[in-house]
Amino acid sequence: MGRVSGKVAFVTGAARGQGRSHAVRLAEEGADIIAVDLCANLDSIGYPLAAPEDLDETARLVEKTGQAVVTAQADVRDAGQLRAALDSGLAEFGRLDIVVAQAGVAGMKGAPPLQAWCDVINTNLVGTINAIQVALPHLGSGASIIATGSTAALMDTAKKDNPGADPGGMAYIHSKRGIAHYVHDLATELAPLGIRANAIHPTNTNTPMLQSEPMYRSFRPDLENPTRADAEPVFGVQQAMRIPYVEPADISNAVLWLASDEARYVTGMQLRVDAGGYLKWYDYQQ
Prior knowledge:
Layout: E1 8-12, H1 17-28, E2 32-37, H2 52-64, E3 69-73, H3 79-93, E4 98-101, H4 113-135, E5 144-148, H5 167-190, E6 196-202, H6 213-219, H7 228-235, H8 248-259, E7 270-273
Parallel strand pairs: 1-2, 1-4, 2-3, 4-5, 5-6, 6-7
């Protein structure tokens, strides 16, 4: 028996990166998966997003574990599309136990800048709320909601001396702060119903979002055309441990724990998987 055997998980942003990793990890431990992704680019985001064949690959990897999967191309900015995607999964599986609101984009160096702001807020914050709220009517006692924040949400950016110091980048930080507050208040309201809600805050994670030209330029503004080799030594500024980034599997293991009955009394948590990044910003407070 796996740690989430017999459960059904709804995962957004599932075509690649962290979302794919979460879907596959949950499947490895016995969950069936409803996997959703936009599978299209956004003009204001300066790196390619997932394609339909990426979502197909996620489905193949889930099926390889022996679990079932239903996929749908849907835009998290549109609650109607998400509801239709979820309904197709419910028609197949008949239940919902886990929500992983993972879909997100980084708008650093996005253009036009104000459109980047809007697309990031609508994807990361509104999209997370949409995913959770279309799921709420189908959740019962024992269900687990997990939203992806970011260590960026916890940083003091008053001086804007950070890699996200432009409208798209600040929208990323703001959206992740909004998720943290939303999950806190949601968890408070759901606790009497036996439904848990938690946020995970990763640091730099080795995904296509991080390994992208706009992110390299954000970390190395001193260079005109920085490469991965130029940026990776600077990635370490985000962590206290001496690493440039964590891997998607590191976040997926935390997702699995929060989804499982091992965390049955854990709710309202702001769980940092950040290699000590938070420690670089704040002193200890009781």
